Amino acid sequence: MDKKLKAFLAEIKIVHVLSVWFVVNLVSASFTLLYSDESYYKLFSQQLSFGYFDHPPMIALFIRLGSLITNNESGVRLVSVIAITSALYFIYRLSDVKNPVLFMAAIFSVFALNLLGFMALPDAPLLFFTVLFFVAYRKFLIKEDTKNTILLSVIMTALLYSKYHGILVILFTVISNLKLLKSGKFWIAAFLGILLFTPHLAWQVKNNFVTLSYHLFERSASHYKFIVTLEYIFGQILYYGPFTAVFMYLALVKYKANDLFDKALAWNIWGLISFFLISTFRGRVEANWTLPVMVPLLIIFMKYSNTRPIFRRRFYFFATPVIFLILIFRIQMIYPLLKINILRIDNLRNEKEFVKEVVSKSHGLPVLTNSYQDAGIISYYSGNFVPSINLNGRTNQFSLWHAEDSLRFRKVAFINDYLNEGVSIANQSYKEYKVTVIDSLPIMNDIIITAFPLKTKSRINEEFNIKVQLAAGQPADTYKDCGQFHTRLYSEMYYNDILIKEVICPLPVDILLKKYSGEYSFKFISPASRGTFKIILALKTSVLGTWSTGKEIRLKVY
Fold first, then answer.
1. Residue 218 vs residues 54, 205, 307, 478, 549: alpha-carbon distances, Å
2. In terms of CATH architecture, what is 447-557?
3. Region 305-313: what's the mean pLDDT?
4. What share of the chain is helix, strand, coil (3-state, %, to 5)?
5. Where do runs of H (alpha helix) occur along 335-468?
6. Which among 72, 331, 380, 411 is most buried, taking Cβ atoms within 10 Å?
7. What does the domain layout of the chain look like in residue ranges?
């Protein structure tokens, strides 16, 4: 039996491994309902642009291309499945190791790859073009000719069009080989790449650099939390393993870089991991943000493991149960094989029933939500575009579309999970949700709040003013109070997320816009203790909550 197994394994080729990978992921893509973020990006694909609030446009293009073939879940995910399968092929080639069985065990035991392998998320094009970048970079190291220069520039551009994290891959590659800065061909590649990226930069300028502002400033926490760093460390182990990650990092530590290409691989792994570790000092870091490390990590793992039989056997021993568990997880996402409650998976399986109930209980009224994820899911499975008004949450692409403008002062069905009034959703996965009928909907998301100064310092118990300017996109009467809803301009002072002071402008928004040109000045007395405080300026509507256009000011008391 052992001889037959060895003979069977000896016949396995990389084409067999990748064919199995492709089929398994295509099945998952076809029978797993869309994750909320996927449905959100599906809306992107229906309005193609050179940029979006959250991400560059590559994932929207991927989804658009797949949807030309079929508009169901498999169509949304098709190009991503092809891209990840292709990426794995190039990773295998870059490793220069001919061991399909080892590669099969590695990729099927990495949780992140199996999750990403069939989902239409920005990480799919990011991983694909990260691999192609290393392919182009190795070619460029061998020969700095015109062909390889153009190839490198195009791939670098595609990497940036996939996800902004792509710039880190380029950066750490340059750091690993500073002689690139003396290469004229590399500078030509960089200049051409910037030229090709100009349409997205123009989009950012047109939209006041909204994406960069969100990622660089709005996501920052007010103070450091050690638990965030701890979550990041454990998240990296669990997301890429758990056992697989241990073996891969062991291989990384023991592997000796032989050339500039190997140095680039190592620098990207340690650089990306360290960069996002430091980023935890500013706020929460998602486990998938380090995904590009999978490319160099797999390559180095293959190189190191191939000549070490004992290391491989131990890896197979630990990888086998992980592969089995990942298979169970895939099935659980489609069908409840095990009677266990995992909120996100339960929600995923019950999306169609949830949307059907929402449509039924909305009685033909226009539907809107306070969550961009819910808006995406309801839009996709109802077949009708459903906007989000971003109450009590962050700004997103719906803020740029202003899709809710047509619903101003109209009777609507508001799908939410926080209001007391409304008809409850019976589906147990969405039992917190209600369909609340609003007779006349106020919309305040198109009012821009500007505060002067944006940063300030103050002595203890010192009086100071903060001048606020409201800039409205519509006539003042568009923002009048209606029915039970009253909107006011609020200023709130926080210390470590604890509210310590609140000042409210008594004037209705329309009066503030008409009589005072949108100007108002808040008077504050700084706290009696030293420290750094934050002041939030925002529009709040009674019952409904806070609109997403708020501004934050940091106050340093000395």
1. 12, 18, 48, 28, 11
2. Sandwich (2.60)
3. 92
4. 55, 15, 30
5. 343-349, 351-362, 372-382, 397-401
6. 380
7. 2-334, 350-438, 447-557
